[in-house]
Write a structure and sequence with these properties.
Elements: E1 2-6, H1 11-22, E2 26-30, H2 40-48, E3 53-54, E4 63-65, H3 72-81, E5 86-89, H4 96-101, H5 103-123, E6 128-134, H6 158-176, E7 181-187, E8 189-191, H7 210-218, E9 225-228, E10 240-241, E11 243-245, H8 246-261, E12 267-273, E13 279-280, H9 281-292, E14 298-301, E15 310-311, H10 316-321, H11 330-344
Length: 345
């Protein structure tokens, strides 16, 4: 089968491309390279052995195009040239902090661009979509673990609101087009890298997520880790999150695709992708220190606006519905992230 992957050279997108190719499928990757590098394609090829053509020259069964999905003309041309079976939509910005400073950018690249993509999918009669959502749609949770039935929409930052708004748009699309098969996957905190160390998390500029900051502190590219808040009502005062290996997240997409593509009519499926376990920032730091043998200097600072004290997933629905669960533990997440850093910088 042939799948369109938007944001396919990004962190989660690239790992999902690997899983799709290793599962015997072909891919069309679209990425504007605003927060990723074209060299990721080399890593994907080394892992999978799959050749990826760049542009419309047909040299293989897999393709990469560098453009923004806001470009409806190029999307239209892509859908006319390729018979796409389903779309996996990762494209968009992903920093909670940046979204607070640049809300217009996040609404444009998230909500507006998604509308362009969905419109072109409908015109091309492509009606299977998996959307990369986030646990931030839950906002300040009343209790943990968080289930898919818990309230959403009281988001604490523009990043979370963009995800929530796109989810609502997709609900309306599914209501109108009853043969549309939609999977919404709410990630908790993807970390780690491919075990080969050929692809991993490689943000442009200063990292916005905790694991790439920790590994860059370990490699002395960053002086120390800033921990925002040590007065939460948690085990050690620092925020608690559900960290999940990026390969497990990627395989969750494969399981969701298999489920949706077996449906003979429309479906609207919302799932959490997490481990079901919560770890504090200090627990994560300690585990990384144990794995790497390197002391991570850190400094406490005041809480950031938009942060919550604790959040981890209920994962029972994913287990029952798509027969998926996370398999990698916190030690493996830290080890793969550190090996990626050592191998590439």
């Amino acid at each position: 089968m042939l799948f369109l992957v938007t944001g396919g050279t990004g962190y989660i997108g690239s790992h999902t491309v690997v899983e799709l190719l290793q599962d015997g499928n072909n891919v069309v990757i679209v990425d504007n390279l605003s927060n990723s590098k074209k060299s990721v394609l080399d890593g994907i090829t080394k892992i999978t052995g799959a050749k990826i053509s760049q542009g419309f020259n047909k040299l293989s069964e897999n393709f990469f195009y560098s453009f923004d999905i806001s470009n409806s003309i190029k999307l239209k041309e892509l859908f006319s040239r390729h018979k796409i079976d389903a779309v996996l939509h990762f494209a968009g910005d992903k920093s909670v902090n940046e979204s607070t400073d640049k809300p217009i950018k996040y609404y444009q690249n998230g909500v507006s661009n998604s509308l362009v993509l969905i419109s072109e999918m409908l015109e091309a009669n492509v009606k299977t979509l998996i959307f990369s959502s986030s646990a931030t749609v839950y906002g300040e949770v009343a209790s943990v673990p968080v289930s898919e039935n818990d309230p959403v929409g009281s988001c604490l930052n523009p990043y979370g609101r963009t995800k929530f708004f796109i989810e609502e748009i997709l609900k309306d699309v599914a209501f109108k087009y009853t043969d549309f098969r939609i999977g919404i996957l709410r990630y908790f905190n993807p970390v780690g890298a491919h075990p080969s160390s050929l692809i991993g998390e490689d943000p442009s500029g200063l990292p916005g997520n905790i694991m790439p900051i920790i590994v860059k502190v370990a490699s002395k590219e960053i002086r120390q880790l800033m921990i925002y808040g040590n007065d939460y009502d948690t085990i050690d005062g620092t925020g608690v999150r559900d960290y999940i290996h990026v390969v497990d997240v990627s395989r969750g997409h494969i399981a969701t695709l298999r489920y949706l593509l077996l449906k003979t009519s429309g479906d609207f499926l919302t799932l959490n992708l997490g481990t079901g376990n919560g770890y504090s920032v200090l627990e994560l730091v300690k585990e990384f220190e144990n794995i790497s043998g390197i002391k991570i200097p850190y400094k406490f600072s005041s809480r950031r606006k938009g942060d919550i004290s604790e959040c981890w997933a209920s994962v029972e629905k994913a287990k029952k519905t798509i027969h998926w669960k996370a398999e990698r533990n916190l030690s493996e997440m830290c080890l793969d992230a550190w090996n990626w850093e050592k191998s590439n910088y």
